Amino acid sequence: MKKFTRCATGGLLSLLFAVATALPAAAQGPAAGTGALTGTVLDSASRQPVAYATVVLLPPAPNEKPITGVAADDQGKFSFTKLAAGPFRLRASYVGYGTHTRAVVVDTGPLDVGALRLRATAQALGEAVIIGSKPVVEVRPDRLVYNAEQDVSNAGGTAQDVLRKAPLLAVDGDGNVTMRGSANFKVLVNNKPSPTLARNLAEALKSIPAEQIQSVEVITTPPAKYDGEGTAGIINIVLKKGTKQGANGRLGLSGGNRNNNFNSALNFRQGKINFTSSANAGTWYSPGASEIYRLGYSAAGTDTLRRNGTNYSRGGWTYGTVGLDYDPAEHHSITLASSINYYSGKGIRDLFNRYDSPLPAANQLFSRATTEVFNGLNVEGTATYTRTFAQARKEWSVLGQYALNTGTFGYDYDQFQGSSVLLSSAEASYRERSRGRTPGQEVTLQTDYTQPLGEQSKLEVGLKGIFRSTGSVATVDTLRTNYGPALAKDPRRSTDFSYRQDVQAAYGIYSFGVGKKLSASLGSRLERTSVNADFRTTNSQFAPSYFTVLPNGFAQYKLNEASSMRAAYSRRITRPAIDFLNPFRDASAPGFVSFGNPFLSPELTDSYELSYNTTVKITTLNAALSVRHTGNAIESVNLLSDTLGVVETTYRNVAANTFYQFNVFASLKPNPKWDLSLGPDVQYVVRRSPSLQADQRGFTASLNLNTSYRLPKEYTVQAFAYGSLRTIDIQGYGPANLYYSFGGKKTFWNKKADVALNIASPFNGRWPYRSTLSTPAFDQRSTFYAYQRSFRLSLAYRFGQEQQGKQRKSINNDDTKGGGSKQGG
Fold first, then answer.
1. What is the tens place of the pLDDT at every residue in 437-457?
2. Alpha-carbon span 91 to 104, nearest angstrom
3. Which residue among 169, 334, 476, 716 is least packed, with the fewest CB closer than 10 Å?
């Protein structure tokens, strides 16, 4: 594997070096002059920039031979300089879109041609040309984009429902998200971090209404301007914003057997001011059941644990946002944005536990009734100043953010020794109560500068500092009823832990083009991390610091107007978050103890990707081969404790993981009213850990399918399905997955209102998520039954002008490792 890694690195670096050395020879262009053209390429439906679109300069018709061409930047901006005066034509194109041609007259000075708007790929039928709506899934050079607003089955849902349908993503029955089979990724909202998502992703996703989401971007090889965290990549949730002029808004109401919500938005633009706001609230309900069967092997003999139970949880949330854009003068822009989210919930868990030991004195038989409580508050405020210049694509910005994120958690349970059924609370033989809190705050400062270096080249540099403090304070009170009626604090199981993490970073990216078909980028990021942890319960501290260099680059070759190939390399870091570091020993589950490891080291991952993009008539296709290798991976480790029949779970740097992946995503339009997208994904996984005596390897695969059809009289029907095989874990196998849904929508009142009905998993009420653990000391089978059958009826009303998105500079704090449900930070 090491040999392959070196070869792949060398091959890619050689390719990029060859591209760089070829740059001086690429001086193709029109006759020199003093004229200049600038403009922006936009999506005609969403008015969002079309990043990396191709723009060519043509002579007057009928001559179709290009004079010169450039690639737009990631904001859709392009420029031509040193042009001779005279008439020309500009033509913009991009994979998945039609072309747009505009006649222009170049003078001796600069000319801003404004926006060139591209529509979704056209389908020609005889002499007629029918323009389809924006595709549900778009393929861009550096990301896959799921346009959630085009999917009718999202009506009345939440961000959790939306992410379930995005390419390369999966959501299990507990709401845990994985990307390309990995829980190590980062989620951003409008290209900036969200404390709501950082604290507890599974809960926070329930707080963002689907109607507020415009698209989900899946970025597998992020460039150096993003923080180095998230080895699987980045998920960026783009929310709807603003108006072109005037005011607009939305009111929505949804009800069903699993969730209910109210969502609203009010936006207006007047002159130099653009105001956006939203207010949302909802409730949710989630039932489930579980089973565990474990065989333990010790010197005393074989012991057996059987445990089963039922559970349900319910809760509510509120979520609100306010944003203000102000352009006081030409080339100057100020943006203020804030959000607040509060959620709380309660869970009831009933279980039956039987443990049979070769030592009769250790046998256990009991039932337990547990009540869990939790809540979280996340508040953030961001301010941005952006300075543009007369020179196209030149830009400087300064950003600052303050975030408060705090939460509480706890449980109470009554245990009934020797009973296989629950009894009254007064008959409990043992009781336990725990309460804890996780305070936290974060300050971020960032500045970025972009300097064009000719028509096809630019340099991007930036500095960033993140100053984060968090911690965990928890107590456990116990009561053995035969010793008295009062609960007493157990000091051995309490924790008082504070944690501070500061990250300073600098990056540089050089992007350039060679001729009309080849473009490339070379970049690197230097990050310094300093940590200060204080364990007040044990009176111990540690304060490590380290530097990390994270190079990356890509080369893209345009085969023709509809096809391209792209090779990319990136190195990324994973810093353990509070959930991985917190030493608090959670012994609330019988037979299990879990705790963090404050001495974890960060992990480094090298990613290599080769992709092919094309549009053939009605089909847009992306096929990618990728390899991800992590040499010191942080893994969840399960070991038998010194207490007979108890398994301890913690985290250690114990594995070398390699993922070989081939995925395809296709979006097609069999006829003008039918949209279809599908994406098979195949992985070969190798996980090795000599210290755990583990060598796990094997194939896994998944398939994502989404289709919709527009019927007469403004009716639309839609169906979605996702299925995956079991995953390969370091000590066993993770569960297979299946989820499917059907939806229908009727639009009326001159397209201002909708009513939608969505049904999920109607043919199977629940799905068994089965996983296994196998170690020299024990074997275990676990099953979690997630109840997925649901229905939801939604009403929505829109008023005012069409929406106009404004691309905002933003902060991306994607630098700590968390699980699929807890993103850390």
1. 988 899 999 999 999 988 788
2. 11
3. 334
